[in-house]
């Protein structure tokens, strides 16, 4: 397939011209794409990786992949959603490569249930940045499953396949992540 092919992209998509120019290897367009997307993709990387400097490195790797795969974008759906999948996949590859998920284990038997009641007035004081900071402190296995399920919207079956674990392992990690998060929010008061 030619790199110069026409993409059936929504003309109202704010990335339409940039995608076309980046496919033509325009350095200026790539720089603009980086400026436009980095502020949206860095928080994604930080949520998965948990450490700012490592998240920056992973984001950089994500951009390398993004630019290499731009000609694969078919224009179905939003470009930003397509790009987000690349960055999430890049984060998961980093976590697997560095064996960060080795302690992501399946728990047989009972799964902890959070019995903590949070006062909505207390949690309203949290802003998004503070909440993302708390999520970044989660153990890697909890954080990864929590992000994939609660934020990205993947099913346990999809998560199990992505992380090479059982669906029960995914469910238990999510349950443990929720308990961990609720404890942290309770202590936040």
Which structural traits does this protein have?
Arc Repressor Mutant, subunit A, 9 helices, Rna Polymerase Sigma Factor, Chain: A, 189 residues, mainly alpha, single chain, 0% strand
Compact overview of the structure:
By secondary structure, this protein is mainly alpha-helical.
Q: What is the string of SSEs from the N terminus onward?
A: HHHHHHHHH
**CATH class designation of the largest domain:** Mainly Alpha
**Structural class of the secondary structure composition?**
mainly alpha
Distance between the termini: 56 Å
Taking the sheet with the most strands, its summary is: none
Low-confidence stretches: 1-5, 105-118
Shape: globular
Proportion of beta-strand residues: under 5%
Estimate nothing, just give the exact number of structural domains: 2
Q: How many distinct beta strands?
A: 0
Radius of gyration: 19 Å
State mean pLDDT (0 to 100 scale).
82
For the record, what is the CATH homologous superfamily label of the largest domain? Winged helix-like DNA-binding domain superfamily/Winged helix DNA-binding domain
Shape-level CATH architecture of the largest domain:
Orthogonal Bundle
**Percent helix:** 55-70%
CATH T-level topology of the largest domain: Arc Repressor Mutant, subunit A
Number of helices: 9
Describe this entry's structure for a reader.
The structure is a single chain. By secondary structure, the chain is mostly helical. It has two domains: 16-98, Rna Polymerase Sigma Factor, Chain: A, CATH 1.10.1740.10; 103-188, Winged helix-like DNA-binding domain superfamily/Winged helix DNA-binding domain (Arc Repressor Mutant, subunit A), CATH 1.10.10. Helix content is 65%, strand content 0%. It contains nine helices and no strands. It has helices at residues 16-23, 27-49, 52-69, 79-97, 120-123, 128-136, 140-151, 156-163, 167-188. Helix 2 crosses helix 3, helix 2 (27-49) crosses helix 6 (128-136) and helix 3 (52-69) crosses helix 4 (79-97). The longest helix has 23 residues, at 27-49. The chain is globular and about 50 Å long.
